[in-house]
Amino acid sequence: QRQLVESGGGPVQAGGSLRLSCEVSGSIFSFNVIGWYRQAPGKLRELVALVSRAGDKRYSESGKGRFTVSIDNAKKTVYLQMTSLKPEDTGVYYCRYQDISFKDSWGQGTQVTVSS
Questions:
Q1: DSSP string computed for 12-56
Q2: Which of 37, 46, 59, 68 is the least buried, fewest Cβ under 10 Å from its Cβ?
Q3: Are 114 and 13 in contact (CB under 8 A)?
Q4: pLDDT tens digits, residue range 16-55?
């Protein structure tokens, strides 16, 4: 199981930008999917952005055009660049790593708070 450490969250005003990072322990190459989820207060955890082993990227409808997920293999880090942030983007952002045997690992989460 991978250890995932997220960072980069914090308070930001609407319209601003943040870049979240997720550092993966061990090899980053043996994944099925890797990416980001968000959990807002009182709501279920939902997909924000995901990268498949084949390199295909998938985004939430609300994040398309504003969010970009990328991987730096040398740094074993997954990034989520978020721009034009909105108050509804507020929540705890979690990194997910699913290995090739479909076992999931999650980070501890990083809080993003967007004020209007």
A1: EETT--EEEEEEESS-SSSEEEEEEEEE-TTS--EEEEEEETT--
A2: 46
A3: yes
A4: 999 999 999 987 778 999 999 999 999 999 999 999 999 9
